[in-house]
Task: inverse folding
């Protein structure tokens, strides 16, 4: 086990006091420590938003890119370096709104990544507008009479797409969250964890109490049974199941590029001489 | 000797196969080639044509007038009739008394052999009419249809049938194979330059006319063990490529104007994160969808101003297919040296067009990655360390022991952590701009000048107009003292040569494939120098030397 202090998960942040991001960070550092991963063995790709600042507040390799674009930069790391643990992390707006097209296609790619989505059902950093997962009754400075669209259920979406690993957890149960991260790491392929993470500043509906009252741990659920998983994924409201909802072993992105074998593309040593035969092909 | 062949028909008729066989054969007969494509944005039908110009002298562009037309459908005869040269000949399936039409019953000849290989009848007929033997064409057929034995046989039969069905009209003769040459299209040339430079990761979304690069590099991915990824959109493509470089791979994307617009924010991200990437923009006329399969130089000012605020950026424009190989290779080294995005402004004219060029010489090509030497990193790694020249040590994750590598889109400190204070912001802006200053001093290419020392006129062009301008200058040289200034690097703008030329009093004639004289505007904004004349063309078609010559006489020297 790596000493969890090595991740420096006590750095000063720009998060609000009481923000759900704090327990999430703690759970993550504990999981990394228990998985025995050194900071340089982990790379985190994030978008923009309060959640996406994570690589500044925990010590791992990090690419803090553009809003909505947390996943695309991670694709290359999977071919560059198969040993690297890859975490993609961002909020619900970044991941399901601005970046909707990328989650759709990267579920298809089945990249071997841990995808942590901080889901607080609101836009925090832009001060309280509706997010794709906001509930219809949410009143905001923009949604003055409630939200004009149905809430997006990311778990149902991912299970519907047969994403190879779909879980839900909550920062209200740090131990559970930590275990989910470890499960996701163990899983070979794309692993989505949608994480309830209350926004104490703007979301007055989906609070810690709201979540705690509704969540329950899945028991006697077979995550390899797709029909059963769809039923569980459909549940959101008075009762919200947490745990591993769907799991399916299937070829990863890397495995679909058979000529890569177990080579790290980053080790490719190219010389111009080796490429000269390409010139001859145009003669 | 200068002979212009046009193959015309509708999409789906196999013009490409005809062109491939003719091109290879002429090349093996020792001719210089220059071919251009004019096709519509559709899969079947419409009217498409390809022009192959051949000569015993080096060719720099297309020419007007047709010597031999292979009319694969009836419509083509009517469309191209007015462009036929005086002694020109049309090969057609139309029975006609007119003496410029050579009738051939291609479908009839192919019917019992292989109706799908009907075009080969035209190829056979063309060689006979030109006076060239078919041996080289037979070789070309065998190579083109390699591994398809029965198809090769059918095509050889039809090649012969076409050859025997017509009479010889010209006397072209073989010039003997030349070993120091190659024929390449501009898109493959960009791909080749990238592969020579050690490209390991190419991510792109298909978009005409840039797709040729994607296809070429993908055709090599398995044998080279590299990865080519078709992105879900151009936004994904540019961010994938950023991730590629961050992960330690030489990475590139290619697109055209609309895709470049979607990539804009990502290119800014490359600027602020100081992530070296190469982006090929194979221009077509816009805005929005524009003319998808045609050519233009309308993206210049957009490329130069690609994203919000300021950051180091380089934009360079290859002059032709040969230059595209060298410039793409150079783009990777410069991107890595200065840790910035480099945009290659190619266009459909050179991207889809092929040219006989001197065999690429790799003796001066050296891959320079400019990655940090791990032994030189002491203590906590600073990705954005302040240095004298603004260039910080670049590492990729996993390269350094006990150190992490962080890259950040927000303004950041030396460790890449988010900051908002004015002092750090000022220091980082200054650091990044120092890189541009160094680039200008050490690596910027001044334009090439061709022509007399004391010209009265100077033709000013950038990128792909270089070829047609070379031919125009030669045509004008009998009547005027005219020079030609050909720019490769357009951003940052090299200013010494143009300033010197402007000071000499020569009249500056800017020739550009756009409507708004964008290069003139760029030079003016950087130097205050104004064009005396603008010869502009924005109809989606490339210039020919003859056209520039004519317009010079009409618009400049009236």
Result:
């Amino acid at each position: 086990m790596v000493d969890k202090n090595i991740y420096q998960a006590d750095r000063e942040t720009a998060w609000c006091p009481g923000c759900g991001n704090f327990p999430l960070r703690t759970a993550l550092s504990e999981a990394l420590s228990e998985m025995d991963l050194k900071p340089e063995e982990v790379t985190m790709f994030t978008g923009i938003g309060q959640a996406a600042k994570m690589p500044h507040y925990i010590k791992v390799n990090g690419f803090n890119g553009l809003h909505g674009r947390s996943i695309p930069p991670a694709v290359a790391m999977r071919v560059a370096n198969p040993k690297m643990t890859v975490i993609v992390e961002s909020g619900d707006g970044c991941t399901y709104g601005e970046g909707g097209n990328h989650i759709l296609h990267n579920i298809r790619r089945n990249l071997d990544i841990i995808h942590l989505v901080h889901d607080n059902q609101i836009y925090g950093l832009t001060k309280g507008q509706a997010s794709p997962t906001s509930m219809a009754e949410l009143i905001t400075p923009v949604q003055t009479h409630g939200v004009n669209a149905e809430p997006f259920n990311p778990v149902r979406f991912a299970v519907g797409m047969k994403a190879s690993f779909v879980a839900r957890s909550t920062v209200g149960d740090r131990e559970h969250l930590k275990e989910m991260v470890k499960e996701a790491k163990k899983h070979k392929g794309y692993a989505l964890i949608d994480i309830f993470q209350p926004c104490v500043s703007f979301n007055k509906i989906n609070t810690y109490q709201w979540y705690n009252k509704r969540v329950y741990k899945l028991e006697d659920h077979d995550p390899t049974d797709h029909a059963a998983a769809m039923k569980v994924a459909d549940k959101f409201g008075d009762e919200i199941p947490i745990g591993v909802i769907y799991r399916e072993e299937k070829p990863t992105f890397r495995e679909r590029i058979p000529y890569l074998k177990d080579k790290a593309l980053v080790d490719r040593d190219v010389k111009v001489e080796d490429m000269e035969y390409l010139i001859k092909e145009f003669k | 000797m200068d002979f212009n062949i046009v193959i015309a028909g509708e999409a789906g008729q196999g013009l490409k196969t005809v062109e491939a066989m003719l091109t290879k054969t002429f090349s093996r007969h020792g001719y210089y080639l220059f071919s251009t494509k004019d096709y519509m944005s559709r899969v079947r039908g419409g009217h498409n044509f390809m022009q192959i110009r051949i000569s015993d002298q080096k060719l720099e562009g297309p020419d007007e007038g047709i010597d031999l037309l292979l009319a694969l459908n009836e419509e083509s005869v009517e469309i191209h009739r007015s462009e036929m040269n005086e002694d020109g000949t049309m090969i057609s399936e139309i029975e006609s008394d007119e003496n410029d039409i050579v009738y051939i019953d291609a479908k009839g000849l192919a019917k019992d052999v292989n109706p799908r290989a009907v075009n080969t009848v035209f190829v056979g007929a063309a060689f006979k009419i030109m006076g060239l033997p078919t041996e080289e064409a037979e070789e070309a057929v065998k190579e083109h249809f390699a591994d398809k034995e029965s198809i090769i046989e059918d095509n050889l039969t039809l090649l012969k049938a076409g050859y025997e069905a017509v009479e010889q009209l010209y006397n072209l003769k073989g010039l003997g194979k030349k070993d120091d040459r190659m024929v390449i299209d501009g898109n493959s040339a960009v791909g080749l330059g990238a592969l020579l430079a050690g490209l390991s990761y190419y991510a792109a979304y298909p978009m005409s006319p840039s797709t040729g690069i994607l296809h070429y590099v993908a055709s090599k991915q398995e044998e080279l063990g590299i990865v080519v990824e078709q992105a879900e959109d151009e936004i994904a493509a540019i961010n994938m490529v950023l991730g590629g470089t961050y992960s330690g791979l030489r990475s590139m994307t290619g697109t055209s104007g609309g895709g470049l617009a979607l990539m804009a924010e990502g290119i800014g991200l490359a600027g602020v994160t100081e992530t070296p990437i190469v982006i090929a923009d194979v221009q077509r006329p816009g805005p929005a969808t524009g003319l998808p399969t045609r050519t233009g130089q309308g993206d210049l000012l957009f490329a130069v101003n690609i994203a919000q605020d300021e950051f180091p950026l380089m934009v360079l424009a290859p002059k032709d297919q040969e230059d595209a190989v060298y410039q793409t290779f150079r783009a990777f080294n410069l991107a890595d040296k200065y840790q910035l995005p480099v945009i290659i402004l190619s266009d459909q004219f050179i991207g889809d067009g092929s040219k006989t060029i001197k065999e690429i010489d790799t003796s001066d090509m050296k891959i320079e990655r400019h990655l940090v030497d791990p032994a030189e990193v002491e203590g906590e790694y600073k990705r954005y360390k302040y240095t004298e020249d603004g260039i910080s040590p670049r590492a990729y994750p996993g390269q350094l022991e006990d150190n992490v590598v962080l890259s950040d889109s927000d303004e950041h400190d030396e460790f890449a952590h988010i900051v908002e204070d004015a002092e750090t912001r000022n220091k980082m802006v200054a650091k990044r701009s120092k890189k541009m200053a160094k680039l200008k001093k050490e690596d910027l290419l001044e334009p090439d000048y061709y022509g007399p020392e004391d010209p009265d006129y100077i033709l000013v062009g950038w990128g792909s107009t270089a070829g047609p301008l070379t031919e125009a200058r030669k045509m004008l040289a009998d009547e005027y003292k005219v020079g030609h200034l050909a720019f490769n690097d357009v951003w940052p703008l090299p200013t010494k040569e143009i300033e010197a030329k402007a000071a000499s009093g020569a009249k500056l004639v800017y020739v550009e494939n756009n409507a708004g004289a964008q290069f003139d505007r760029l030079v003016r904004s950087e130097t205050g120098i104004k064009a005396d004349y603008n010869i502009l063309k924005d109809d989606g078609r490339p210039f020919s030397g003859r056209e520039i010559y004519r317009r010079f006489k009409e618009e400049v020297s009236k």
Observations:
- Residues 472 and 545 of chain B are 4 Å apart (CA to CA).
